[in-house]
Every structure is written in C-alpha cells, then in structure tokens.
C-alpha cells in the first residue's frame, strides 16, 4: 500500500492540468467538484499509505521516481521521503484542503473566474505536497517556490482592486527575502556534505563544524521567517487577507505558513550541532512575534485581520517550541492550529457571505441568532485557540509552555501573557460578531440612507435629499437586510473542522507516555535531539491549572469590556496596536525613501565602478590594439626592417650582460 505514495501528489496535479486545459468548458459548479474530488482522492490515498507505513522499519519509506539534475558530483532526484513527520503533514494538508475545496464551491458561486480559482487551488496542494514529501532540499525548495507563486495568484485573485494586486506583490516580494536565505542554506549544505538528500546529510550533522552548522541554520531560518511570517518578515500576511477567504484558510492559516516550522523540525539535527545561542535566537524571535502580533490583534476591526494577526502569533508559538527543543510540541500545535484556525477562517467567510461582503466587526453583532451553525462552529474554534480545556488548543499550547518553562522563566512568562492576550482578543471578536447588539441593522440602514442622499442631492438639491433620507431611514432601516446562514457546501466543512478542533488534543495528552501518541510517532525523526521533559504529577497539575486560569481570565476581561461595557474599549485598543506598532509603515517608508535612495546608490556604484572597470579595461584594450595595428602595414620591407632592428636590440642586450674581464 505504501508504494501508492506517488499517487498523493499526482491526483492534485492531474486535477490542475485538467482544469487548466478544460476548466472554462467545464464551468461552474463541475470545475469545483473536479478540483474537490482530486484533493479528496489524495486524502483517501494518504490514509491508505498511512496504514501501510506502520509495517515499514521506523515508519520510513523512500521512493525514487527519476534523476532530475545530474551535474558532476551534484545530483538531485525526483524522489519522496515518507516518514512520521511528512506523513503527519500529508494527512492534515490533504484533509483540510479537501474540506476547503468543498467550502469554496459555495463561497465562490457566481464568480466569473470560478474554474480558474480551483485550478490555482489544485496547483497549490500539489506544490505543498512536493514541499513536505521531497527527499532533498532542492525538491523542497521547488514546492516552496510553488506555494509562493500560488499564494501570489490567489491573494491577488480579485486583481481589479489595486489593494488586492498590491497585496499579492507584497507577499511575493517579502517572501523572496526569505527564499534567498533558503537558497544560500541549501548551497552551504551541499558544500558541507556533498549532497542535499535528507537521509544522507542529516545523520552526518553531529560531525559538522559548529560554525558551519550555525551558518546553515541561520540561512534556513531566514527562509522560515519569510514563509512563516516571523518578525520582521510578517508584514505580508495581514495584507494577504485581500484574497478570497478559502485562500486565507488554506494557505495563510493551515498549510503554507507552516512550511517554515516544518523545515526547522526537518533539519533539527543541524540545530543540535549549531552554536548554543542559535536556539535562543529562534525562541526569542518566536515569542516576540507571538506577543507583538497578539497586541496588534486587540485593536483590529476587520474580522479577517484579527485572524491574520492571530495566525502570526500562533506561528510565533511554534517557533518558540522549536527554539526550546520541543519539536513534537511544535508539530502538535501546528496540527491543532490547522483545524481551529481553518474553522474560524471559514467561519469568518460564512459571516462575510451572510453579511453581503461586510467585514467590519463593528457592523455585526447578535449573528448567532440568524447564523446558528456558523456561530456554534466558530465558538468551538474560539474555545480551542483561547486554550479552554478540554479543547485541542489547550493541550498543544500548554505543551509548548511546558518546554518554554524548562528553557527559561522569561520565555514562559511571555508565553503566558500572550496566551492571556489570545483569549482576550478572540473573545472580543466572538462577542462583537455573534453576541451583543445587532449593529448590522443600523449600519445597513445608514448606508442605504447615505447612498440615497448622494443620489437625490445630485438631482434635486440638498434640502429634499435630507427629507428623503429621513423617510427612507424610518421605513427601511433594519428591514432591507437580513444576514443568512450559508449553504451546506459551506457549513459541512465547518462542522467537520469544529469537531477536530475540539478533539485533536487527544493526539498527545500529557498524562502518561501511552497517551502521547504523536510524541511516540515522531520519535524516529526528532527523538535524538528533542528536549526531554520529566514532569511530576504536581508540576503537570500546576501548569494545566495555570493555563486554564489564564484562558478564563482573558475571556472574563473581554466579557467585561465588550458585553458589560465596564471599561471603555478605547483604553485598550490603542492606536499603537491598531497601526501594528507602525512596523509595516516604517518598513514601507524606509523602502520608499531612504532605502530606495540607498539602492539607487548601489545601482550607480555598480554602473560606474563595477561596470566602469570592466568597460574601461575593454576600452583600453581596444585603444591599444588600434595603435598596434599601425605597425602591421603589410609591406615586406617594413617587416624586414623590424626584424633587423629587433636583432640589433637583442645583440645589444646580450653584450650588456657579458663580462670581458
């Protein structure tokens, strides 16, 4: 059964090619069903392969399809490495992608480029599978670039709006910074080991010089920072919300953004061989990203922007886990996060769909009454990410905090503060959208009034416009607009994802070793380098209770602020947070101002000095040659004269060297 491994990426690739060639002819909705069937088939195949992998030694299987790049000592195969890490990634990537494809059939209904959307989605799934299944760094990089390209296509899918097109370009360019680090790291691996195949160079990592290992990991970490949106390369992810919501759920919550975490866990033996300060750098950037992104989420009003900054924050948690040696905890949180964040992103899409494309949470409220399925599933995702027991996020986040406490009290404290902020801002979102006052009725009536006012003022004058506005507001406010529940193709994926968001914590319960299924499953990949925790029953109980109290405290504070209104929300939603600590604007201003001038100076230096030196040598050579050609007259007597002169010069030189004493 495990030999069917090749079929897992082949099915999405076949779906992509079919939709690319015949998508317009097939049209809606069949193009969506074909794309969904291709990914669902990939998931079913993955389950079959997973069953077969149990019988393989150390649950590892390699498959070489063909030699791709033979060039002297450098050789790259198209081959797959199936081990516990890649198998875990494959299962949740294909499973969640299939659900999101199904959801997209309803969400993208009526879009003029419906078939093209599923073409891009199938290509993305194929690229993501190549990234996690590739048995070497070059093949991983192929998938890495593939998901980056698909991200650009899908973020700017509605490119008619300049903001959407700019967001796609921003994501593409920012990721190129990280990709540079990945490439340099790959080159360094080849120079150090003579190979880029994981099974060949990772076992040799312990014998690598510490300086070399540190350089390789720094470069690969830069690549991971770009793809997984860590400070300062996180600025592209919030803007990526310009894409359709299924894109946000699939690419920017559950799969592509976790690629950096996957890469770090994959090369964990090199981290172990690096300088002792490198894990501190990884953990420090991770916890700083988690904290800063959480504070920014507090003040966002766009329903998707809150989830975007939440994703950045949760990715920071995963890097914190990598830095403190909790590789299993990083993968555990990656899996649970994929379920509850995909559930909430799709839930936000359902809200936007039911609210006629409204995304401002200040214009929502009380939607649980008219969108009960969306509300219930979103609330389950909220309880999971807030860390409320027994939902999945509680177990995975507490696992990370346990490793952080083992490494440093400071890291643990910042992790707890971030957990408090997470519970607060997610509760804020739920209360503003699904509870409280139905602001959508008032806001819609006001919008209709304003629209009518402008139309009337342009034709009949301002005085009459005011009368019409008042009459229209009285007659229609709250009557012309009715939020509604989404169709089954959208609610069924929500229900499935909510179920797994609730129960996925069972993968790795901390009470006994027999319940730590994920830890035992990943043992062949990370067991040798992972930090070993030995918590007593009392220590475990204290940590679990502390995490629970922190989560409930965050919810209680949000309840008091946004439902009971005991504190003015403006005292919490500071402009500093609303503007993202001015990090994005500072980088943009620098790149458009001083940075642009600096790059122009570099370009001028290249043109004047570098190119000038090369061109100057060429001009000097050409000028000298032009002068030398004058001695080549073509006359025999001239050549004879030159020979005579040359002979005299040689004789004179010899005589000056001879001693007659």
Automatic annotation (TrEMBL):
TM regions (residue ranges)? 6-23, 30-54, 85-105, 117-133, 139-159, 180-199, 205-226, 247-265, 277-299, 306-324, 330-349, 370-389, 409-427, 492-511, 540-562, 636-660
* GO BP term, pick one: electron transport coupled proton transport
UniProt keyword annotations, A-Z: Membrane, NAD, NADP, Plastoquinone, Quinone, Translocase, Transmembrane, Transmembrane helix
Coiled-coil segments on the chain, per record: none
Cell compartment(s), UniProt: Membrane
Outline the extent of the NADH-Ubiquinone oxidoreductase (complex I) chain 5 N-terminal domain: 68-118
At the highest ranks, the source species' classification is: unclassified sequences, metagenomes, ecological metagenomes
Identify one Pfam family in the record. Proton_antipo_C
Q: Which family does it belong to?
A: Belongs to the complex I subunit 5 family.
What are the residue boundaries of the NADH:quinone oxidoreductase/Mrp antiporter transmembrane domain, all occurrences included?
Answer: 135-422
Q: Recall the GO molecular function terms of this protein's record.
A: NADH dehydrogenase (ubiquinone) activity; NADH dehydrogenase activity; quinone binding
* Domain NADH:ubiquinone/plastoquinone oxidoreductase chloroplast chain 5 C-terminal: from-to ranges: 479-564
Topology within the bilayer? Multi-pass membrane protein
Name the reaction it catalyses. a plastoquinone + NADH + (n+1) H(+)(in) = a plastoquinol + NAD(+) + n H(+)(out); a plastoquinone + NADPH + (n+1) H(+)(in) = a plastoquinol + NADP(+) + n H(+)(out)
Q: Which InterPro entries match?
A: NADH_UbQ_OxRdtase_chlpt_su5_C, NADHpl_OxRdtase_5_subgr, ND/Mrp_TM, NU5C-like, Proton_antipo_N
Q: What is this protein called?
A: Unannotated protein
């Amino acid at each position: 059964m495990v030999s069917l491994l090749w079929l897992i990426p082949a099915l999405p690739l076949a779906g992509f090619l079919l939709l690319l060639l015949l998508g317009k002819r097939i049209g809606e909705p069949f193009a969506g069903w074909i794309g969904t069937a291709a990914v669902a088939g990939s998931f079913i195949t993955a389950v079959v392969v997973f069953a077969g992998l149990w019988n393989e030694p150390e649950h590892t299987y390699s498959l070489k399809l063909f030699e791709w790049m033979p060039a002297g000592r450098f050789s790259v195969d198209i081959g797959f490495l199936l081990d516990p890490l890649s198998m875990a990634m494959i299962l949740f990537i294909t499973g969640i992608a299939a659900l999101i494809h199904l959801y997209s059939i309803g969400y993208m209904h009526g879009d003029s480029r419906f078939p093209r959307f599923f073409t891009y989605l199938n290509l993305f799934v194929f690229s993501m599978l190549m990234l996690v299944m590739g048995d070497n760094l070059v093949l991983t990089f192929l998938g890495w670039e593939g998901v980056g390209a698909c991200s650009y296509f899908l973020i700017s899918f509605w490119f008619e709006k300049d903001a959407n097109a700019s967001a796609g370009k921003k994501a593409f360019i920012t990721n190129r910074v990280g990709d540079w680090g990945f490439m340099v790291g790959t080159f360094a691996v080849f120079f150090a080991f003579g190979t880029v195949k994981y099974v060949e160079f990772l076992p040799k990592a312990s014998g690598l010089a510490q300086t070399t290992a540190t350089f390789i990991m720094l470069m690969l970490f830069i690549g991971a920072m770009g793809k997984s949106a860590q400070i300062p390369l996180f600025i592209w992810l919030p803007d990526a919300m310009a894409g359709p919501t299924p894109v946000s759920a699939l690419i920017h919550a559950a799969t592509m953004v976790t690629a950096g975490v996957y890469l770090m866990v994959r090369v964990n033996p090199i981290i172990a061989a690096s300088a002792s300060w490198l894990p501190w750098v990884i953990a420090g950037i991770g916890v700083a990203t988690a904290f800063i992104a959480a504070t920014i989420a507090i003040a966002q009003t766009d329903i998707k922007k809150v989830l975007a900054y939440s994703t950045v924050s949760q990715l920071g948690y995963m890097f914190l886990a990598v830095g403190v040696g909790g590789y299993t905890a990083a993968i555990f949180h990656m899996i649970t996060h994929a379920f509850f964040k995909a559930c909430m992103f799709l839930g936000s899409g359902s809200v936007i769909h039911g609210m006629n494309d409204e995304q401002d949470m200040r214009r929502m409220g009380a939607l649980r009454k008219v969108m009960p399925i969306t509300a219930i599933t979103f609330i389950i995702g909220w309880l999971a990410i807030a860390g409320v027991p027994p939902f999945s996020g509680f177990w995975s986040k507490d696992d990370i905090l346990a490793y952080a406490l083992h490494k440093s009290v400071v890291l643990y404290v910042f992790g707890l503060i971030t957990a408090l902020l997470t519970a607060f801002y997610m509760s804020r979102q739920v209360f503003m959208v699904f509870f409280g006052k139905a602001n959508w009725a008032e806001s819609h009536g006001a919008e209709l009034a304003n629209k009518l006012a402008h139309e009337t003022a342009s034709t009949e004058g301002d005085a009459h416009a005011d009368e019409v506005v008042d009459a229209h507001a009285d007659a229609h406010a709250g009557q012309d607009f009715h939020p509604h529940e989404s169709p089954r193709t959208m609610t069924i994926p929500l229900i499935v994802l909510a179920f797994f968001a609730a129960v996925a914590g069972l993968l790795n319960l901390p009470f006994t070793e027999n319940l730590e299924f994920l830890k035992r499953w990943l043992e062949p990949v990370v067991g040798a380098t992972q930090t070993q925790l030995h918590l007593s029953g009392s220590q475990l109980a204290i940590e679990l209770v502390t995490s629970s109290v922190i989560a409930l405290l965050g919810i209680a504070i949000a309840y008091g602020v946004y439902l009971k209104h005991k504190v003015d929300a403006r005292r919490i939603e500071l402009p500093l947070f609303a503007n993202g600590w001015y990090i994005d604007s500072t980088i943009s201003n620098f790149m458009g101002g001083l940075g642009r001038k600096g790059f122009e100076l570099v370009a001028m230096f290249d043109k004047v000095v570098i190119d000038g030196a090369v061109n100057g040598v060429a001009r000097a050579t050409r000028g000298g040659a032009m002068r030398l050609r004058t001695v080549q007259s073509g006359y025999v007597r001239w050549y004879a004269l030159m020979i005579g002169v040359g002979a005299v010069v040689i004789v004179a030189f010899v005589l000056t060297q001879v001693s007659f004493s």
